[in-house]
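Give me structure tokens for this 173-residue protein.
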Amino acid sequence: MAPHVRVTSVALIAALAACAGGSKEQPASSSNAAAPAAAPAAAPAAAPAAGAPGEQQYAVCQACHQATGMGLPGTFPPLAGSEYVNGTPEKHIAIVLHGLTGPVTVKGQTFNSLMAPLGATMSDADIAAAINYERSSWGNNGVHVTPEQVAAVRAKTASRTTPWTVADLNAMK
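Here you go.
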């Protein structure tokens, strides 16, 4: 198996394992508990062109954030229209490198789950490609990210051993 395929496979397994953890909030176990109301359906976002640059690398992210970039309601946040995807490149890169845990609000909805860190399993070029795919898909308009920017954030945050929290990201300089 080619090295890049093996790395992608390992990253996909890590992402799927993180997705399996789902939300940290547990529903009431009472049989009389009402089922939660379904979230209103979001308008479908513009789909990226098939074979778009970064689509292959995004496959790792797709397990949780879906091919549509809409995430899983109540569990994993959407990337389509996300403040993090369209915001500061350094924070977006940091999240992909080291993961994210705890409550995060995206598009006015709060999610409380764990995103697996992908920095150990993806190269700077692969992370840049996946991020650029996210930043240019589903109506997003984030600025382009280079592998050199990913390398710089990787070096700056190399001592980090835990996933980010929103408070950590907001304190990031």
